[in-house]
Amino acid sequence: MSRQRIVHDGPLIIGGGLAGLSAALSAAPARVLVVSPAPLLTAASSAWAQGGVAAALTLEDTPGLHLKDTEAAGAGLVDHDAALALTTDGRATVEWLASLGAPFDRDPDGGFAVSREAAHSMARVARVGGDGAGRAILSALIAAARAAEHIEIWEDGRLCGLMRDGSGRVVGGLIERTDGLLVEVLAPAVVLATGGAGGLYGMTTTPAALLGEGMALAWLAGAEIRDPEFVQFHPTAIDVGLDPMPLATEALRGEGARLIDREGRFILGDADDADLAPRDVVARAVFKARAEGRGAFLDATRTIGEHFPQEFPAVFASCMAAGLDPRTTPIPVAPAAHYHMGGVTADTEGRTTLKGLFAVGECAATGVHGANRLASNSLLEAAAFGRRTGRAAAAETVKRFRTTETTQPAPHLPTDVLLRLRRAMSEDCGVVRDVSGLKRLLKLIREIEKENGQALPALAARLIAQSALDRKESRGGHFRSDYPNTDKRPRHTRLTRIDPVIVATTVAATAAVVAVIAST
Predict the structure, then answer these.
(1) Which residues pair with 503 in a beta bridge?
(2) Sheet of strand 512-518, all strands in order from the earlier edge strand to the far edge
(3) CA-to-CA distance for 460 and 215, rounded, in angstroms?
(4) Model confidence over 41-66: pLDDT tens digits?
(5) Which residues are catalytic?
(6) Tens digit of pLDDT for each residue in 243-294?
(7) Please, which residues bridge with residue 258 across strands?
(8) Of 18, 287, 445, 485, which residue has the fewest beta carbons closer than 10 angstroms?
(9) 253: part of which helix (H) or strand (E)?
(10) CB-CB contact of 413 with 213 (8 Å)
């Protein structure tokens, strides 16, 4: 491959989703280069989000109540200060998005129309067209970014390496463009907004290209990774044989749709709000019903019925495309990988443990989600912390770039090998995990890495699987059938690369335990 080097005097932002574009717009007047692997709107999981943006927008609600629900859902691992910053920024963030043209639904008085979703104590999710929030919001930001004079956009680039100087500071990224050209982009700040890791799973609701590569590259560069074992599985992916799986938004259950088995019995019980339990609880109940042969279906026929096309057009279109009319027929559902709570350790301004490297959005672990994300907090975090990150990254300066190494591109993983890995991740590191399955998965990952080099998807999968094996408890999105209880003292998993080992630091309230895991 031919290679060239360019020097950029402002932030290099990897990712063109809600987090990346919020950062880019907020970095003005600094010159920004945004790199996306595909045309904007097609590559970002934020465009697929249906629910909306959670924020305290009504007279009855407050940031404090939103914070309380966020911490309750996070199962003991939510960072209080980070979550307070998030919920405090809620209204201002929604208003900023609206000012850019995001067409939020409005109530008769002109205020934001809000819905209730799982684990929220009240309605607080600002929506667009019922279930079209992600695409509509991102479309508005794309238009604003294209019109902004300070933003340059590449829609054909994949980050395949991070560049460092002699002190370990990140000073740029190696970009592989679709024409085969490798471009070394030197920049005073690199912002990872690369999305999550749902594409590592055979059953996922996210774009298949989201393979945890940002997390893997950050780990290779020496950044700390936090809590990678915590993956959220959405309980109501539409099970019609598609990959990725279409999503049936949680707002359906907020409007009264119920989860039933094929005999019509309620899967989570008779209580009116039973289906609005935290996502990890609902996902395990759906998983159990399917494993027992009872099947799982989302029944909206009695509560939404004929209003389905108007109230939830995206879900309706997905069902009808599969030959299923949700007005009259319950929707077959299954849990699917949906969101990664873990990722690159970052503060509320995106700063990681490496100078010059920032992370924001789903690839970052800021602590706001803990062990289980509260519904619709993800779009809020992407925009709110994206704005903070853009301002912080724009303030970074480097007097002179000095790289001490030639960055080599990470190898690609063959399609057939990736499919094997995805099937194994869903089977052995999915909704329910145990020691035999996780060891079987890690054995496969070692074989893949031996045959294919240090491909980023395999590395990301190893970070998730090894951390899942080491966490001998069940908490939030991580459930171990062989360790079903939750430890009394919450603790984080922290991974840092020190060649040739991974150092996993488990931090408790008053002590730190260091375990060294041999790298393969």
Answers:
(1) 496, 516
(2) 364-365, 343-345, 225-226, 492-498, 501-507, 512-518
(3) 7
(4) 887 788 788 889 999 999 999 999 99
(5) 279
(6) 999 999 988 998 999 999 999 999 999 999 999 988 899 999 999 999 999 9
(7) 299
(8) 485
(9) helix 251-254
(10) no
